[in-house]
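Help! Submission page says 'invalid entity' but I think these are all valid:
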Amino acid sequence: MAGVLILIGFAVAGVLTGFSVIIPYAYSKYVAVAILACLDSVFGALAANLEKKFKINVFLSGFFGNAIIAIFLTYIGQKLDVDIYLAAVIVFGGRMLNNFSTIRRVLINKFEKRKEQKIVETETSNNKI
Amino acid sequence: MEKIKNVTSDFIKKHNIVSYLFIGIAMFFLALMLAAQMKAVSDTTEVAQGKREAQLIDDLRNIQNKYNDLKVKYEDKSKIVEEYKNNASNNDSLIASMKEEQKQLSIISGVTDVVGEGIIITLTDGENVTDSSLRTDTLVHDSDVLTVVNELKAAGAEAISVNDQRIIAGSAIRCVGPVIQVNYQKVAAPFVIKAVGNAQYLESAMNIKNGVADLLKELGIGVKITREKEVKILKFDGTINFKTARLAE
């Protein structure tokens, strides 16, 4: 509970500071790719958390590393006049969808297990009667 | 004390606060970028395509900001100059004569607002092409404005402005696409040309038979000339720089 509150506090603070930050239009492409990379990391963390495989150092290195690499790729793409940022968009977009499907499957599995347990419980109670 | 410490460290360990803090920092950056990016995208209403246009938009924004800053600075400085002018002692006859000269020069150079009797000429784009017109359109051209200004000068106008752009010694009136440029500022029809001077002379110089007004009317341009007791002409609000010319010894 306390952890969720901390997360929400940081997110709100980020939004508030974000409104007073001005991104020059020429750089908005880089920021967009960085946002994609970060979102991918966050959903990856959610999925890993549900599977109980979450590691803080993996998350942090992925969060900042992916963003920096994505920005770097976009920069190189602009210099070479090849839209390499599309690669980042496709990869991160695909991984986000994968993470969603993982989250979905884990949640459905949990739900079904609970249902089975309930059925077993009711059966045992019926047997007692 | 020890107890409180233990309780807090237990709390931190139990709820995994440290890892949440790290994730929180990451979320902070993500939220910051998201908000800033959304604002930047919604700010640019017209989605410019290509990096060249994006570059130009940034340049324009920077220049506009710089221009506004400089204008504020300029106004501050001119206020200081004004103060110095007013504070100068009146007793000294030399200063008085210098002040008089300064007043005269500032009217000549156009760096001060002036009022006085004069005329206001309004040139509007015409609607129908007249048969006798040499042109295929009835728009007001840069040459028409130039002719009027020239005629006013010849008739003894002491101060002239076109759409509040003061005509000074270095003013150019020229065509830039659909509008005309005066003092490097774009002005568009209707053109309001104000002139301070002997109103009777000025008006008759305009209305003389086969004069400027007749010529322009023949081209299909709407010409309206009014005499005013009090015409106010704004000062020249650009900067005057002499890079080559210097006083001859």
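Support: the input was valid. A stray whitespace character was the problem, and the output above is from the cleaned input. Residues 27-128 of chain A form one domain.
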